[in-house]
Amino acid sequence: xxxxxxxxxxxxxxxxxxxxxxxxxxxxxxxxxxxxxxxxxxxxxxxxxxxxxxxxxxxxxxxxxxxxxxxxxxxxxxxxxxxxxxxxxxxxxxxxxxxxxxxxxxxxxxxxxxxxxxxxxxxxxxxxxxxxxxxxxxxxxxxxxxxxxxxxxxxxxxxxxxxxxxxxxxxxxxx
Length: 175
Ligand SMILES: [Mg+2]
Description:
With 175 residues, the chain is of the alpha/beta class. The chain is 37% helix and 13% strand.
């Protein structure tokens, strides 16, 4: 983003949100079907393109089985820069604790969501959890819930930020 008054305004309004992302039962159903691994990934990539401030931290057990470079290359080239990290691996623990471990290690106190089918690895109710059904994964209904959560009051969409900038311009306060 070029350093213009408009972009500074928009960046100030938009807050980073971290999406802790599971793969199995999310980006593809388990068991997998004829559509294969990552059949739902285009749906998530489209979400990321529309929500520029969402950054992804991989929480999937795939992070234990594959090198980081391989994990990142699963995603489309234009969103790879948004896949920023993975959660730490705790031997005797659960996914929620690993997420908290990442937040503490990174001193991250901002908004976050977890897209996951492993409901039993989270304290319930967990307002941050966007639950997928293992045998279904990230379908349109889950995507709708994810979108609502990402656009809740702690997060402003790029369209909202641009509108806000325009309103201020129209009132003659900036230009
Ligand atoms: Mg899973």
